[in-house]
Amino acid sequence: LFATFLSYWYQISLDCPGYLAWKGGRESWDKAQVPFEGYGRMLEVLVKVLKTAPHMHWRFQLMVIDAVTVMIRDDVQTPMTVWECILDGMVSDNSHVREACVPALGSALELIQDRQRSKEDRYGDEPLVRFPDKTFERWNGPAPAPCLNTSAFDARKRVVTPEYTAAVRQVVTRYFEDAVYLAKLTDVMSVVQLGRARHMNGSHAQMFKGLLKAFGPSIIAPFQPKLEAMLTDPQAQARESSDVYIGQQCFAAELVAGLVRGSKYWNAEDQASMQVTVSKVVKHMLSIAEMETVGIWATCVRFCLFDRHPRHTRWLTELIMDNAIPAKAELGTTSVLVCKKLLLLKTVVKELGWRGGPLQRQLAHDIEPFLDHPYAQMRTCV
Fold it and tell me: What is the pTM of this model?
């Protein structure tokens, strides 16, 4: 209720005259021509409550975080103290507060983007406007000239100055370069016993995407050792407990999904490096004969392919396709692997829809020999 009340601030224009005339009554409204300038200060005071009352009940902390999340605006610079509050909350001892701060960071990162780069398509350094990701109704023509949220981006251009962006980068980098903070953040995002869900969380992937989109590949470098450690332990599924293994897979899936989506705006060299990293993780995942995490990685693939032009994700669909179907139907462990890969291919086919015609024809040809497989699980997946 508190957040709903405060969200009213998000719906009104701060440029409307009269906010300084509240104390003078209605007769003074026409005389006030200065827009309201205390919005940032109001956010600072709101997050200050969390620091001045460290023993506040977690429900009230959650109430403040939710309020801050809905009150962040396009036309007002988010104070640095709000960024610090959100980053601190991501490693809170309470899982409810952490799960509220992750989408809050994603929202704050989105609001410092001053242009809709999804309307641009680049080959090298030459920008093109054909085949944008989210304009399938104009498949063979140019994208619509006006952007649906042009006013929001215009507002951001006025307040998101280079100095403000540099200050935000400095704050976020300071946190992610702190080894203690990074270790705790990695733990709470990869350990089920610490309160994370047993499935891939889209808000986590969206947060990684926002970080990579705003700050580039360097911001994600501290998480690389976590992925490399997972790749060097092929027996983790058999040796570790189910909760530990699933938590690691969830974290890897969320990081991979954020990499694929956020790297769209990188240069060709950085994109090639990302593809190598993601390919290693995907191949490792496809080599493990287990069905516990197939739903996690299916969600990851769906996040990567959603509303994207097939050309941009061709390398990923080809990677999954080439490693999915064996040359001949066999029994044993191979059957479990094929079932896992077929379920991932189901997600690929569903997301591509009518745009994946050639892939669907090839897939129908490849899975035909498995229609009379002796295992019911295999026949069901086919």
Answer: 0.80
